[in-house]
Inverse folding.
């Protein structure tokens, strides 16, 4: 019996934007056994296609009852790092892609006009995105809710990517993402505005998984780490993160979690700020989901107390806060910062410009919390299996065997899976 | 509804159109005799928005029961995430005592079981969706995939969503079969009635036993006005009730007043109210009545209002010895009949005793607070519904604003506290600022 039948639809969608064709093929079972899924599988799929493809892939546990099973990985040849890079996409996109009937999605070629993909019921539709071109992320989502087929979640590019700004970053809903390797730019170069997931099919499930998940949750809830939650708990573990916490201490906040995560690491903040355009009288309340730890930190270092309104503007335009922070000077005032931001948006960037942001691609995406022997291996495990890497870094007691036991309980099968997993991890991590 | 029926695989051939022959007559509601004394249990799931992180585990686990798949869109519970405000709300069947979905269903596929659970019988359900429109909380949810209607059936008394919620944002309550505040209040009211009306006749107006004396404060005011003399014993006798009001608000009106007890009894007997003219809806009227009573007593040199006071006449005229011997007998039924218009109409608009206590309650030590943020988004507003003096603003609750409860009007019956399923209504000291649910997370 195939242990993966409860975890995969065993389908891969291939979209050729140049030919405006979208097809769904059965997934090779042998590949799954060999590479398990996620980033490892993406790398193999990426090598099979020409024309700078982007591969969106889920892990075997994505959408399952394993805790924090929210991860989808986008793999692409980064124009910044000049090699294959993986972007972790959290919140609900991973599970929703699986619930839409596709486990992997390859996008290749370039569309003749701005396009959107809609994935549902195991089918992929290519739609025109002309009506949302150049619109801010929240505006575009609102428009899509009105006119497009219904969707549960989406990945979308903001106006920054449309205008070829090198600091563009893809956005999951209106919450931003951890894209710091140029996913948004590559999508924009393919004239791919976004991908919507209908998520209406669901996935067969292993009947033992809910209890296993509950048991694991109970185990980790006894840990000290479990009580330290929210965006601040991760910031505290980073260099100079403690100082940056104060900028959102006084605002109304609420911890938020990705799909099926028992220990939230994001925080929604509602803050007031004075709009520089409307003089002193105009102030407004704005909400913002803080999920990008490195982005927040980079911006907070430069703009200090103005970090929240500026981060909000970055998310609206679909800009990477780390890249934007590079352009700002310390000790400025909010109107000045917003002017710089508008300048970035208005400037006609040559397509060859790249963002001077990252040192190591994954370190830019996932904060380097040192709780495990090897940060790289831990993150690689998460990126393959489909569980949030930040969650796994926070709870080092969750081992690879614990996670694999969700797929299979039999000892000999577990051993085979583990061997496959370890080789997949070693293929992702540098020697 | 059997398990077998619930777990039927959705078929593509199912006809979702509603035909005339589908419409079934509504069965006669049978009520067991015991239900008159002990209401049916009200089992439902409470949602705590302050705890919910929006992880969607409830949707996941619920969908596995509905469809044998992990498909959050097919769940009977929905988590609505407000991106701007950062608030999460659940859409979940509250298994109302009088469900609106039940009469809306043309095929009578919805029924409320003896266990208080409102279920959809999929054998009769034609998926017409009228229940989704009738429900104020939009709890019956149409599965966008199969187009079938799903509704929470509390997993037959053991809800999976409650068991699996990592934040304990959902709690299952089997309802309060016996509300202890209600029990205490009725006991207190009955004993007070027994003592003041049946046993110690006329003691409410003035009572003296040795050095201890008690007097009605309104009567004392009228006495001072009519005689023009301040008798220290009389004034000190009236202080007892005023002191009680300073400590516990208008506790007397809700827990002791014998006429209030009569009004509460009458209230139980009235099947339908006819409403109250808006011209007479001023709560200031009772202060006018008080001023008139004192002024009239001064002018006529006798205690004018005491002759028609319903509390006084009840205590004086309805005792064992004086039953049916007084012309004052008509006053109590006449004023009690105001209940046909509005609950506790006398207390709200006319009672001068309440007016004196209301003025004294300006110095009260306690207050009732209702934290709207502890309620659901679709507020159940049960507190507003049970409040006999109608001082809880349901519209404010619906808008998510904690209503200001006027303590000069509140009779401290504590029905709101007793009824609130979210523990959002509390007694607080006057100087305490925190409202339930409004502490910073």
């Amino acid at each position: 019996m195939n242990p993966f039948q409860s975890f995969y639809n065993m389908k891969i969608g291939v979209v050729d934007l140049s030919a405006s064709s979208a097809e769904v093929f059965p997934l090779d079972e042998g590949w799954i056994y060999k590479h398990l899924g996620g980033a490892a599988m993406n790398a193999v799929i990426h090598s099979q296609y020409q024309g700078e493809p982007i591969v969106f892939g889920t892990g075997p546990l994505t959408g399952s009852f394993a805790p924090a099973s929210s991860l989808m990985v986008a793999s692409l040849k980064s124009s910044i790092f000049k090699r294959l890079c993986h972007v972790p996409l959290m919140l609900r996109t991973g599970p929703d892609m699986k619930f839409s009937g596709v486990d992997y999605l390859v996008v290749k070629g370039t569309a003749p006009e701005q396009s959107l993909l809609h994935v549902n019921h195991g089918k992929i539709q290519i739609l025109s995105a002309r009506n949302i071109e150049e619109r801010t992320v929240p505006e575009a989502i609102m428009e899509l809710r009105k006119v497009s087929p219904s969707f549960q979640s989406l990945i979308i590019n903001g106006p920054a990517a449309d205008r070829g700004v090198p600091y563009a970053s893809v956005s999951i809903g209106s919450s931003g993402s951890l894209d710091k390797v140029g996913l948004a730019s590559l999508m924009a170069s393919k004239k791919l505005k976004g991908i919507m997931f209908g998520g209406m099919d669901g996935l067969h499930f292993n009947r033992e998984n809910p209890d296993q998940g509950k048991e694991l949750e109970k185990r980790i809830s006894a840990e000290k780490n479990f009580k330290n939650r929210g965006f601040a708990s991760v910031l505290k573990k980073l260099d100079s993160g403690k100082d940056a916490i104060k900028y959102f201490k006084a605002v109304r906040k609420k911890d938020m979690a990705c799909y099926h995560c028992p220990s939230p690491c994001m925080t929604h903040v509602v803050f007031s700020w004075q709009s520089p355009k409307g003089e002193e009288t105009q102030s407004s309340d704005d909400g913002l989901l803080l999920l990008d730890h490195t982005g927040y930190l980079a911006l907070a270092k430069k703009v200090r107390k103005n970090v929240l309104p500026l981060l909000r503007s970055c998310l609206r335009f679909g800009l990477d806060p780390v890249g934007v922070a590079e352009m700002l000077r310390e000790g400025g005032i909010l109107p000045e910062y917003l002017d710089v931001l508008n300048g970035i948006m208005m400037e006609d960037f040559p397509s060859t410009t790249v963002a001077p942001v990252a040192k190591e691609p994954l370190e830019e995406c996932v904060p380097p919390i040192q709780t495990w022997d090897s940060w790289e291996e831990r993150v690689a495990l998460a990126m393959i299996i489909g569980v949030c890497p930040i969650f796994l870094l926070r709870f080092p007691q969750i081992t690879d065997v614990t996670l694999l036991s969700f797929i299979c309980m039999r000892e000999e099968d577990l051993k085979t899976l583990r061997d496959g997993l370890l080789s997949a991890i070693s293929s992702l991590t540098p020697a | 509804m059997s398990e077998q029926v619930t777990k039927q695989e959705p078929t593509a051939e199912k006809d979702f159109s509603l035909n005339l022959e589908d419409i079934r007559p509504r069965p006669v509601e049978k009520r067991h005799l015991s239900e008159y004394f002990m209401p049916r249990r009200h089992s439902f799931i409470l949602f705590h928005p302050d705890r919910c992180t929006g992880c969607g585990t409830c949707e996941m686990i619920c969908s596995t029961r509905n469809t044998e798949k992990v498909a959050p869109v097919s769940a009977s519970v929905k988590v609505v995430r407000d991106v701007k405000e950062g608030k999460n709300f659940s859409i979940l069947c509250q298994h109302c005592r009088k469900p609106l979905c039940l009469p809306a269903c043309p095929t009578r596929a919805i029924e409320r079981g003896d266990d208080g659970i409102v279920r959809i019988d999929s054998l009769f359900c034609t998926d017409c969706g009228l229940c989704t429109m009738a429900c104020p909380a939009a709890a019956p949810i149409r599965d966008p995939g199969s187009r079938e209607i799903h509704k929470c059936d509390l997993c037959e008394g053991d809800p999976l969503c409650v068991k699996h919620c990592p934040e304990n944002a959902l709690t299952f309550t089997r309802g309060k079969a016996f509300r202890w505040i209600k029990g205490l209040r009725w006991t207190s009211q009955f004993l007070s009635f027994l003592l003041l009306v049946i046993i110690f006749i006329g003691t409410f107006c003035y009572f003296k036993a040795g050095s201890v004396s008690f007097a009605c404060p309104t009567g004392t005011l009228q006495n001072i006005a009519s005689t023009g003399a301040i008798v220290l014993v009389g004034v000190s006798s009236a202080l007892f009730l005023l002191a009680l009001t300073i400590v516990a608000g208008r506790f007397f009106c809700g827990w002791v007043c014998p006429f209030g007890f009569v009004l509460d009894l009458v209230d139980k007997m009235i099947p339908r109210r006819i409403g109250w003219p808006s011209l007479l809806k001023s709560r200031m009227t009772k202060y006018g009545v008080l001023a008139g009573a004192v002024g009239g007593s001064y002018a006529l040199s006798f205690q004018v209002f005491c002759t028609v006071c319903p509390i006084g006449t009840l205590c004086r005229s309805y005792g064992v010895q004086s039953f049916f011997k007084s012309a004052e007998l008509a006053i109590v039924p006449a004023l009690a009949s105001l209940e046909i218009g509005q609950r506790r109409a006398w207390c709200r608009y006319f009672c001068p005793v309440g007016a004196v206590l209301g003025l004294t309650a300006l110095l009260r030590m306690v207050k009732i607070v209702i934290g709207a943020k502890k309620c659901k988004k679709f507020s159940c507003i049960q507190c507003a519904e049970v409040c006999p003096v109608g001082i809880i603003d349901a519209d404010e609750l619906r808008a998510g604003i904690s209503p200001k409860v006027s303590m000069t009007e509140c009779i401290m019956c504590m029905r709101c506290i007793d009824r609130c399923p979210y523990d959002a209504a509390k007694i607080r000291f006057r100087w305490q600022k925190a409202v339930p649910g409004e502490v910073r997370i």
About this structure: Chain B touches chain A through 33 residues (CB under 8 Å). The radius of gyration of chain B is 27 Å. The mean pLDDT of chain B is 81.
